[in-house]
Structures are given as C-alpha cells and as structure tokens.
Amino acid sequence: MNxxxxxxxxxxxxxxxxxxxxxxxxxxxxxxxxxxGVMSDHLHAKGEWMFGYRYLTSxxxxxxQGSSSITPEQAAAAGYSMVGRTMSMEMHMxxxxxxxxxxxxxxxxxxxxxxxxxxxxxxxMPMGGMxxxxxxxxxxxxxxxxxMGDPMMNDSMMxxxxxxxxxxxxxxxxxxxxNVSALIRLYxxxxxxxxxxxxxxxxxxxxxxxxxxxMFEHYGMQLGSGxxxxxxxxxxxxxxxxxxxxxxxxxxxxxESANDSGFAFGDQRFATGWLGYRLAPWLSxxxxxxYEYEDQLSGEYNGAYPRKSPGDxxxxxxxxFVTAAVGFNALALRGPLAGVRLGLEWExxxxxxxxxxxxxxEDGWSVSLSYAL
Length: 373
Ligand SMILES: [Cu+2]
Prior knowledge:
The protein is mainly beta. The protein has five helices and 18 strands. Helix content is 11%, strand content 49%.
C-alpha cells in the first residue's frame, strides 16, 4: 500500500469511526452489501438513490510463465530485452444507483484509472534475442529493424537498447470505460435474494495511449477496452442470524473483434463466493474466494509499437486465477453519518496459470464507501 492509498483508507475510516462505536439497530445490517471487491451485489427499494465511491488498487511483481516464477534471464531467452519489474494500478469509481422499482435498480459507474510500471533490461543484446519473435507485420517494428537504422528510432528507444540493464518507469492515467447496468430482481424472501445484472461498458477510456517516442504503450496499460462489452452477472445473497453469504458468477463478453487501435481484450469469466460474520451490529467480517478465466488478446496494434517486453505481445495476457480475500463491512447506524457504509477488502492471488509471460499479481485493496437516500 503506498501513501496515497493509506491516506484514502485512513480518511474514510476516521470520518466514520466515531459514529459506529455506540449504536444499535436491527433495520440496517452491515452485511447487506457484499465485500468491497464485489460489484453490482445489491438492489435498492423503489425511489432510493445510492451514491458510492469505490477505490481499487493492485500491485504486480515478479515474472511468471504459466504457473511458474521465472527470472529475467529466462524472459531474455524467450526473446525479450525488457521486462516489467513492478506495476501498480489504481481505479477510482463513482457508483451511482437508482431504483426505478423494487424489482429494477439502475447503476452507473464511471471510472478513473492510473497505471505505473517499472521496467528493467534483461541484459541481452536485442539483435540476437529478438529474432525468435520477429513479426511479419509491417505495422510494428522488431528490434532487428530498429538496430539497422529504422527512421522511427529515436533517443528513448536508443536508451533502452544501449542501457539494457538500467531500469525506467512509465505510466498512463485518465478516464476509463463506463459501466451502465440494470439489476433485475429474480427472487427475494426473508434471508434470500437472487438478481440478474445486465450491464454494458461504454468504451469511454482511451486505447490510444502512447509512449513519449510515439509508439503504443503495452496493451495492458491502455485506459479502456475500446470495445463495447457486455458485463452480465447473476448474484445470490443470503443471511441467517449473524452469518451471511453470497455467490456471484459473471463475465465480460467483447461485442467487437477489434477497437480503433486494432485489437480487443479477451473475454472474461468469473465465479466468486463469500461468507460474512457479524461481529457487532455495525461491523461484519468477510472472507471470499474468486476464480477467474481470461482469454488472451485478439488482433494487434495498427500502429508502431515496441516488441521488447512481454506486455507488447497479445499472447501474454489472460490466464486462469484463484484469488482469496478478507475484509470487513461497516455501517454507521446513528448520528450525522447514519447510513454511511464502508467496505474494505484485501485480496491476494493464491493460484495462477498465466498465458505466456506476465508480471504476477501480488495483492490488492478494494474500498467502497456509499450512502443511500
Ligand atoms: Cu447501492
């Protein structure tokens, strides 16, 4: 957790802490929202608005090929002259909900993304190492081309070549895609609720992020998907006494085969389940497991991009992952902040099978702050 993230969590907690301490009510339960890392998990009563803020951050560190950890030298042997050393991603989201009826709640979720990556040379001369991944498309450029005096070569590329062992960092930030969803109640009884979420993401995020030398960023550092995507899910939640639980299955279906920059991210599928236990009328602790599957990318950049590091290859995206998470949900029951909810969840990847070579996910935090009226 860096300083910004700590500050964000700290401020949220301090704002709400005094009112949680001495309150009691049976009408509102802290566990009626899912853990902070789960979205579109609940509906509202007719006419109710909810204003929420969500914050997600994740850290990536260490190279993986399939399920095994590999060294930069092994990545060099696979043809890469640069590899990522660390990557951090931050997302700030607004979570606005309005219930048009008891059966249908609408949700709008714009997001702001920022990603930073540190890279290091693998210590190989690009000429030899890159031959294996030479590409026959003229859209991009291989290391061999650039070493032979390609006119597009500039100082910053030269730096990477000549100082292969040195590290540098780069990043992108801006508005990402916008989620628009309808949550439709299928079943509800005392202690049980089932709903279907029909969602799309509007491609408001840029897929045209470039490095200072004019070449495309790694695919994974674009701010949006650039395609209209379907993001449906099915959610069941329940509770009995102090215990609560939930299951959500869903995914992302790309509705277009390529965006304006020539590629499309892979489809995703996920299933997650959680258990909660109410420690106090205002506080519930949660534990969660998530399984995810994501396809590699299709298509390819339709402009110049470096092919030096794993993030520049469409095959080095997606895979199959299991993530474990623990957290808490708190709800202010009385006082000036009554009704304010705070969820905090920490997650860590416990099993992984990456497509190709990728930076491994280490851990991440989700924060959710919301108020309904
Ligand atoms: Cu809500």
